[in-house]
Amino acid sequence: MDNKFDVVIIGAGVIGNAVADLLSNYNLSIAVLDKEADTAFGISGRNSGVLHSGFNNPPGSLKAKLCVEGCKGFQDVATKLGIEFIKTGKLIVANSEEEKLELLKLKSQGEMNSTGGLSIIGEKEIQVINRKIHGIAGLLSENSGIFNPFEYTIALANRARRNGTRYFFNNEVVKIETILSSCEKRESDEQANFEMQAEERFHITTKVGNEGFQEFYSGWLIDSAGLQSDKICRMLGIEDYEIVPKRGEYHVLDKRFLHDLKMPVYPVPKKESGVLGIHLTNTISGNMMIGPSGENIESKEDYQTTKSIMDKLLEEGSMFHGDIRKEYVIRSFSGVRPKLKQKIAGVDEDFVIEESKDIKGFVILAGIESPGMTSAVPIAKMVLEIMRESNETIISEFATESDSERPDQFPCANAHYGKPTIFEDKDEYAHLNIICRCEGISEGKVLKAFDSILYISGIPTLRGIKNRTRAGMGRCQGGFCTNRIIKLLERERKIDPVDMALFNQDSPIIYGRLR
Amino acid sequence: MMTSKINKNEEKDAIIVGGGPAGMAMAIALREQGVERILIIEREESLGGVLNQCIHDGFGLVRFEKNLTGPEYRDVFYKKLIEKDIEFATAATVTKVQAFPSHGKSKRIEVSYVEKNGETTLLTRSLVIATGARERSRGSILVPGTRPSGIFTAGAVQNMMNIGNMVPGSKAVILGSGDIGLLMARRLTLEGIKLACIVEKEKFPTGLPRNIKQCVEDFQIPVMLSSTVTNIIGDSRITAVEISQVDENGEVVQSSAKVVNCDTLILSVGLIPENEVALTAKVEVDSDYEPIVNHIGETNINGVFVTGNARFIHDLVDKVSQSAELQAIEVARFISNGASGEENKHDRYLEHAAAKEARRKEKERNREYHFMKEENSLVCILCPNSCIINYHKQEERYIVTGGMCTKGKDYVLDEMLNPMRILTSTVKINNSSRELASVRTTSGIPKENLLQAMEIIKNIKLEKSVSQGEIILKDFIIEGVNLIASSNSRW
Lengths: 515, 491
What we know:
The structure holds 2 protein chains of 2 kinds.
Chain A: E1 4-10, H1 14-23, E2 30-33, E3 50-51, H2 62-81, E4 85-86, E5 90-94, H3 97-112, E6 118-122, H4 123-129, E7 137-141, E8 145-147, H5 149-162, E9 166-168, E10 171-178, H6 180-187, H7 194-197, E11 202-208, E12 212-223, H8 229-235, E13 243-253, E14 265-267, E15 279-282, E16 288-291, E17 295-296, H9 307-320, E18 329-340, E19 352-355, E20 362-366, H10 372-389, E21 434-436, E22 441-442, H11 443-455, H12 462-469, H13 481-493, E23 512-513
Parallel strand pairs in A: 1-2, 1-12, 2-9, 5-14, 12-20
Antiparallel strand pairs in A: 3-8, 4-8, 5-7, 6-7, 10-11, 11-12, 13-16, 13-17, 13-18, 15-16, 19-20, 21-22
Chain B: E1 12-17, H1 21-32, E2 38-41, E3 57-59, E4 68-69, H2 70-83, E5 87-89, E6 93-101, E7 107-115, E8 118-129, E9 133-135, E10 151-153, H3 154-162, E11 166-167, E12 171-175, H4 179-190, E13 194-199, H5 209-217, E14 223-224, E15 227-233, E16 240-245, E17 258-261, E18 264-267, E19 271-273, H6 276-280, E20 304-306, H7 317-337, H8 345-369, E21 377-379, E22 388-394, E23 397-401, H9 406-417, E24 420-421, E25 424-429, E26 436-441, E27 445-446, H10 450-458, E28 461-462, E29 471-473, E30 483-485
Parallel strand pairs in B: 1-2, 1-8, 2-5, 8-20, 10-18, 12-13, 12-18, 13-14, 25-28
Antiparallel strand pairs in B: 3-4, 6-7, 7-8, 9-19, 15-16, 16-17, 21-22, 22-23, 24-27, 25-26, 26-30, 29-30
Helix pairs in contact in B: 1-2, 1-7, 3-4, 4-5
């Protein structure tokens, strides 16, 4: 049985990768399964990239506790991973007396959560932060910041992989069975080696693209499947959780414009909506984003953007910032929040992070919406604790933390405005020809990204290359670089152009050769 | 890859960024004005810019009074560059531009560029930005729907097919009836790719009359006017578009939506000046990406000029070359006089605004032209004058009137009795660095034989490289017409 692991993690998003990354420091064999071609194709690749400080979450909740912990530890995490993070601060803006009261409530909530760095500022101070923002009062959160969510998610995967974690992409979990017999047998045996005991508690079957099935066996099973985390639970007969998808649309603006925005700016959240509200975020790449909105939708992975919301984003964005024009938009996209079905109407559920009471060894991570990214490392630590405390733990000895301190071997590109980045670390990547003019990306960087995808056993797609290099994220939106990337990969990596896809096997770029 | 020998140890008089129709014309004209040390920096493997992928004819009608394909037009300039020994670097991208004062009064501009294995920095007295245009994308026109594969801009499809030898899809909808969209409609149809329709938001197709005739009317491609794409459908690859009508104000008419199946959406929704280099150089560029230049095309930075489509979008390549040639006189004057003193910012802003307004008015005037065509009239397509020729049948003969020259009348008679078309396409070459060579018929072949001609062309496989003008097939379809190579098959 080749595919036998101590731990199988379902879902290679930021949560699954953070768990793998942490556990990979210990004497454990780990596999991460994901139905997509690459990491960060789900929620982790569709958000604002904001590090939250924790004042938005109810005191005593896991969301509050883990967010605050994640926020405080992030600079250190980022440095060790070799990714970029800017502690920009964040501003919540009130435009009425009612909203001003809300600000005070948020501030005291933040104080109860011990976020630190919160202060109320007036109209004048808002204008100093940014001339074009309209507001009568604001809540300034100094500990909030921005980072590149792709870079973070991918860096975690790379480091986990370097520590021995195995990734299996294009593997959609379709069936899970518990294997009770071997456990029962061993429990009675006092000589039982702890390692053997929990060896095979789960038998997982995956569908591999259109080609067939694969089997996996594990002692621990971590459900970090994002939008599908309830579906995974149901495969084991656990009906307690239901994910109710809530989509958020965004506009990305041309990085030429709105440089004056130095930190994310939010409205006062409306309680009933269950979302933070359409906000303006500056990103590490230099683009400003408007969004996300919040709409209940039927189908979980319905990522379309809609006219009414696209119009609304521009309207509401303009209410904040006087200089937003639809001509500045270069792209619109959406993400879907994995919200757990509310037990009490109007009250959001907390994170679910627990070992199933009925099925030992099955750890459920459900409803990990915002502040999920901020909380990723603390969530991973909780998972480790759950495993340690379990009587059937297979971690009999803990190895010391290994080379996780080394900066990541394949850092992502963060092109900064006006400064094309040229990459020359190894001879083979020193192809300096610029292939993406909008973002100043060299051919060498694209080749490095391609190799980086193969390093974690992903399937190279244009989206995977884009997420790692920013090629295709610029103002021409891949109009120039797409053809050239395909030809480059044909020349330097012998990839047939017909095999290059946008993000999965059903999204080919071209249909064949002309002659 | 062809790069000339470059002297990297001398200061240049002029560095031209971009070796397309504007850049090449500027370089040649500068040399003719007596400017010595000129360098063209081109990011592609070969000079020519977009001309290399424009295998269709229609170039040179104004400039040379000849009907050339893009590669043939490009070669006229390329040969002159070689003849005049002008330096050029290809597969080289400008990464940094810095203007600074040096000793004495005259300023210098420092330009850095990267090639495959290294970076070079040179000083120059003047910089001419000739970086051409880029295409508006789906994102910038805010089309709702999903983001599947199969959505391309027309120029990207042109590059993909004519240079890359790749097929974008099997059934396409084209949004936008400007020239690029129309040309691609013909190109796709000739290659056997289905065209569901062309969608245009105006009440009339917006390309040149010659393109409307030869691309849409010849192949009877359906055009949905006063319409636009209001939704994109398909999770992984596009499967359909929703098309709705728009009223005079461009507002979508509710409940007019129609779903049209396709696997490819091609956008021909406008060109924007490509000004990454200008922005890198800290040139003032307005929010339409046009550089704010005075009447001689000089920017806020002394000695930095912009020419061609990077300055503003031109409707014909011929005009791009002509305006670059005129501008060369001013650039040469700048070079010989040194710094032109403190610039007058106010004047420059006014001149830019005035020029922009004049262009807008010109565009409006050209639009109205489309309404003038009546029954029993044809637009002559022999040159961009696009004269309207009227005809009527009298007994067994046609009587034709109108037009500024006699060729127009002959053209209409031919159209009525025996329509002919020049065919341009590509053939496969084995054993060559380029996969395809562009080809053309030396003159028109009967319109009804176009698809048959395509079948022959698709099966041609050249075993060695060809040079421009070389005959590939003699007496192709009809006697006296040859199929010739319209470009050199090697870069």
